[in-house]
Predict the structure.
Amino acid sequence: MHNHKPQNYPFSAIVGQDNLKQGLLLNVISPRLSGILIRGEKGTAKSTAVRALAELLPDIEVVADCPYRCDPDQPLNHCPSCHQRFEAGETLPRKRQSMRVVNLPVSATEDRVVGTLDIEHAIKQGEKKFEPGVLAEANRGILYVDEVNLLDDHIVDVLLDAAAMGVNTVEREGVSFSHPAQFILVGTMNPEEGELRPQLLDRFGLCVTIEGIHEPHQRVEVIKRRSDFEEDGEAFAARWKQEQAALREKIVAARDLLPQVTIEDGTLFQIADIAIQMGVDGHRADLVMLKAAKALAAWNGAAKVEAAHVQEITEVALSHRMRRKPFQEVGADQKKLQQLFQGGHDHHGGHHHGVHSHQK
Amino acid sequence: MNQQAAADAARKTEVLIMHKMTKQRRTVYPFAALAGQEELQLGLLLHAVNPRLGGILIRGEKGTAKSTAVRALASLLPEMDVVSSCAYHCDPAVPEQLCPDCRQRLQTESGVVTSVLTVPVIDLPVSATEDRVVGSLDFEQALQQGCRAFQPGLMAEANRGIIYIDEINLLDDHIVDVLLDAAGSGVNVVEREGISVTHPAQFILVGTMNPEEGDLRPQLLDRFALCADVQGLTDREARVDIMKRRDAFEADPSGFQARWQPQQEGLANRIAAARQLLGQVNTPQDIYEYISELCAAAYTAGHRADIVLDRAASTLTAWRGLSQVTRQEVDDIAPLVLAHRRRQPPEESETPQNQEEPEESEEEDNTPPPPSEPPDNPPDQKEEREEQPENQDEKEDKDKNNNANPSQEVVFAVGKPFAVKRISHDKDRQARRGSGRRSRTKTDSSVGRYVKSTSHRERDDLAIDATIRAAAPFQRRRRLDMAGPALLIENSDIREKVREKRIGNFMMFVVDASGSMGANQRMIETKGAILSLLLDAYQKRDKVGMVAFKGDRAEVLLPPTNSVELAQRCLSEMPVGGKTPLAAGLTQGFEMVRQQLKRSPHMRPIMVILSDGKANVSMDGGKPMEETRRTAQTMREELAIKYLVIDTEKKGLLTFGLARDLAEQLGGEYYTIDQLQSEGLAGIVRGALA
């Protein structure tokens, strides 16, 4: 869609919606967070924010002539052809490219998503050739699904499969092929139009629920900026250039810091206790909390994860995982979560240890 | 001639390399670094000791390392002798099981050349199409050389190995059918696209599933030797451990693998030792007897359980470095063998609750499940009700109110859901788009089963075989002035596939919410039935809508939506009270379905009417029953809609059978709530024995 739009709305010019902005930024800092689901009513800057994010994305090193944009420094994750070339001792040509945002339309068909046989090539040349799909395009980028809850179920299954493994395996129409498909899954949905299956919910690292802004001054600011932007997008962007540059720098700094961020055992226990008390399914919640807390620490320039970091990301990491069965509502346990943190501000680790042993 | 053969051979090796290189290697988490999930780990390790054990199904909630564990297993699997360059990895030591190619090789002077291969683990993604699973015409060869050759599919690659299916319960039914067929006979018979090939396909299935997303068919379930149920760990130390390891792995996969190398080697050595020992393990007579006792006590169907339990216990014995099976080994492995095979005792009836919670039976390991009372036994029902005291109160309130003021509205709780029998629309000739798992239909998307070909072009879904057949007669003439591929294809030759698949339906619920439904807990039971249908609709991916009628009118509670959750919410909030305007309800529901039909004419709606068929108020002031009959007749003329009448009338009391009449007038099917329940395997077995 943004092909037709010469100018994206600058990310830093978005008014309010701090949760949403933070969630997106954490994912950019730590792509292993495996995405974010944005729930909210219409007209709450969901899509604007995601599109705006594209401009802030850092550059990545890619193999110059690889359709899957393999990372030349990660031979373990190479696509079959890069792997073959690497093994043969070839120095893979590099180039820098910005991360992409690939849009998955709700009407997409399965063969377009996973990739399929190149029929034209097959008929004309009598050879099989794999025609990469959306999942290939999205490798090492962002896969953006607007109205993800309206997506065809079959497509959802395929997405789940690829998102979980980081690999897209194609066994269809005479094609047998697999390639890396590691992407940040960003979905938006309006809960009024139906929920997502719990299994898909669980695959989103974070989840934020956003509402329209109620504060009058901010509302006015939203209208003003939007009309300024629509009047002259380029001039508007120019005015925000400095903020954008500062934001981009901060992202790069956080990405550089992330591998050095450490976490103490006490904080890990804090995470485990939250997960146990909230009764989440499986262990994905723990891992997401850990990664999100690390990313947040990096964003704040801290070299160590503190209890406050964990607390700050708990809601976005857990709100969609407390829904255990297909028919339970999302966020039903919000109260429980709030109780968990009440009075826990000053001595976190201790507080949770206490609660836990008390239960035992 | 010789040159030609050499060129062919060179090309073939090239193709082979290409084939191998199309699969991406994965960075695999080391098996030794898995934490917890002992059942799962043991089940998988036993397969490394004895790959012929028979497969394992892993059931569990999301995020419990199901897939990680299976993928980690691959690196621990043993190597086996295979015939070099055989597409089916034939075993040179077993001449009677050789594929036709290898048999031919055996007759040549050089005989077969043997090489070593790790037991293959073949990924079967949920998006796989049938041609890749069973194999198909190799159209590269067909187009370039004009010869008919077989391109082996995944079942060929998996011969003597493992087929791994993540989310196996989401796999298309027709793929499941071909898998079952081959798994049963050990042979894959391909008769399609003008090729006729039979090749060995002895594979075992390893699958993971999340039971929330739907169940497996019993036949498929029985194909798995073992079944492990996994849950997240609740121990905080263990959870922290998992976080640390996973984090370290993701930060530096190769470093992590290197750190765990000693443990991995330890495991590999132990597996190798166990494999050596396996041939010498013996099972004493009393252990055989013990095994059959256990299986009999679990009421397993057939003898597969006994055989599998014996084999699994022997493998476990070898794994423990022992040479004689004892009761200990049998007891330790029995939960994995019996988890998915345990049945209700045949003389007892299967109550819905037991069907719903099969995991529960695992705890009561050696004792037969407590006898359950027949569902239509009144005392039993009373007991069940007493488990829900609020409802009881509500009901009493209702009864009182009913006497005082019949139009007062009361909200009833939702009764217990049960498994619903299969409801689907009949097949017709219309092509449809969409997905789901209810009715079979022709489809214009490219995921269905290829049933035939057509020259009518709409999509680029090429039927290679049919296209080649169409082009064949003209080759001589076209060749006159052209060089190029072996086959010259023109537009007029091109054929497309006609496919068939299952899609979801639109289910329209028309619910009687009049005051009479409050009597005798009928609404609780009715809501339970609707909830069951909704759960079924969720798993089959249907669209749903809901209309309720009470007082003097019908009300649209829920416009058509894909969100079964919304339907469930509006069900639990639905009040009852007032008179019964049945005709109004039918008309409203009918109008809504018709609107949907206008929007998407190919949709196949099912209208579910929950009522006792009694009407006592009409829209036009005439006789209510007369009006109902007229409405039903109009509705019957709309052939696209399938009608289902679920009778909510209580048995035993004075019965009118009006709902049955309504079903007849609509030309639809009639069920009581009891009849709606699906019969489990026990029920089918019971039926066969009776």
In short: The radius of gyration of chain B is 30 Å.
